[in-house]
Design a protein that fits this description.
Blueprint: E1 2-7, H1 21-44, E2 49-52, H2 64-74, E3 80-83, H3 96-99, E4 108-111, E5 118-120, E6 125-129, E7 155-161, E8 163-164, E9 177-178, H4 182-185, E10 190-194, E11 200-203, E12 206-208, E13 224-230, E14 238-243, E15 248-255, H5 261-268, E16 276-286, H6 288-304, E17 307-317, H7 321-327, H8 331-345, H9 352-373
Parallel strand pairs: 1-2, 2-3, 3-4, 6-7, 7-10, 8-9, 10-12, 15-16, 16-17
Antiparallel strand pairs: 1-13, 5-6, 11-12, 13-14
Helix pairs in contact: 1-2, 5-6, 6-9, 7-9, 8-9
């Protein structure tokens, strides 16, 4: 039996631009921790080897320090790592793969940068790699598998990085195509794929492992590796999906029509808030007093969550008579309030957001003064 781990898309060195410095540093560091978790898993499950189906690194200009940290993380697994150049780290003349030759490390690294068989396990397994030598290819680089000769007793494993035709969203099929029946045509026992960042079974012998640590707000099951067992050539592979992610990236839409408490209930369902990055979209209408309560709730969750991003373009303030009575305004002040209220309610008014903010500030200030006088 052959047992191996299939992983891809580590993207070591990803910058995570747009996040605060402290958040960005921790997200970058977690990429190395994910590699350590993969190495530990491979060691614990007695894997014969690990295949990395492209994009181990986010680019060929990655720093020497990041390369060394990656190699150190990999060294905790005693078996070989078969690494395929992907579209982020293609095997150009000067690449991260050529630079690796000058590093000292204990990782058993096999750089699959040529389309030629890689024998493993004393010839009981053969990996057929399809390395990328540029960012985007128009041809199917896995075609050579079909005629590749391997020993009859060897398990045939394809290793590629790209988009399987007719199986992914159109936007994912813009380059580096792979035939959807390649495993059948090439008599593969397993086709290990990278580029799609979620765990996905394309066919019984064709899988994307996805990235082991999510790096965006997904809906495609990132954060896993595949543990694959194949008894013999021609036998059906047994594929186990194993979670490796630490961070929980969530895109959430919460309707808060008239009730700010619904937001608190939605966020409270997150099992580990301190390790969750939430992209939150709020929809609905709220009175001014409920909007103030909502802002207080958001401030509390901003402290508890690892990261919180809020989109509230579809959340409207809808002051009611109780709000206006609490402001307790008369004369020209009440006239101004009524005008602000009308502007805030109009989607066509370019000053809608400013008017809504002014009403909230006025309401909050009257509430603060009221508490002080009490």
């Amino acid at each position: 039996m052959i047992r191996f781990v299939h992983t891809a898309d580590w993207q070591i060195g990803k910058p995570f631009g747009g996040y605060p410095d402290e958040t960005r540093a921790e997200l970058r560091a977690e990429r190395f921790n994910a590699v350590r978790r993969i190495a530990a898993l491979a060691q614990e499950r007695a894997a014969d080897f690990v295949v990395v189906a492209g994009d181990a690194f986010d680019g060929n200009t990655i720093s020497d320090r990041d390369i060394q940290r990656t190699l150190d993380a990999m060294a905790t697994f005693s078996g070989p790592w078969v690494c395929l150049p992907g579209n982020h780290d293609p095997a150009v003349s000067v690449s991260v793969w050529s630079r690796l030759q000058r590093f000292e490390h204990r990782a058993r690294l096999v750089i699959a940068d040529r389309p030629e068989p890689v024998e493993l396990c004393d010839g009981r397994a053969v990996v057929l790699p399809a390395p990328l030598v540029r960012h985007r290819e128009g041809a199917d680089l896995t075609e050579w598998y079909d005629t590749a000769e391997t020993p009859s007793h060897a398990v045939r494993i394809g290793l590629a990085h790209g988009a399987v035709a007719n199986r992914l969203p159109a936007a994912a099929e813009s380059g580096n195509p792979i035939a959807d029946d390649r495993a059948d045509r090439a008599r593969l026992d397993y086709l290990a794929l990278g580029d799609w960042h979620g765990f996905l079974e394309i066919a019984p012998r064709t899988f994307y492992s996805g990235t082991p640590e999510a790096d965006r707000y997904p809906a495609n099951e990132p954060g896993f590796v595949a543990l694959v067992e194949i008894d013999a050539p021609g036998a059906a592979p047994r594929v186990e999906k194993l979670r490796t992610a630490r961070f929980d990236w969530r895109a959430m839409v919460v309707d808060v029509h008239g009730d700010a408490a619904s937001l608190d209930h939605a966020l409270a369902a997150i099992p580990s808030p301190g390790e969750a990055l939430v992209d939150l979209t709020l929809r609905g209408t709220l009175s001014l007093r409920e909007r103030i309560a909502l802002d207080e709730t958001l401030a509390g969750w901003q402290r508890r969550l690892f990261d919180l991003r809020v989109r509230d373009d579809d959340l409207l303030d809808e002051p009611d008579e109780e709000d206006l009575d609490r402001i307790d305004a008369a004369g020209f002040v009440r006239t101004a309030v009524d005008r602000l209220r009308a502007k805030a309610a109009s989607r066509e008014d370019p000053e809608r957001a400013a008017a809504a903010l002014a009403l909230r500030m006025m309401f909050a200030e009257h509430a603060r003064l009221g508490r002080r006088e009490a």
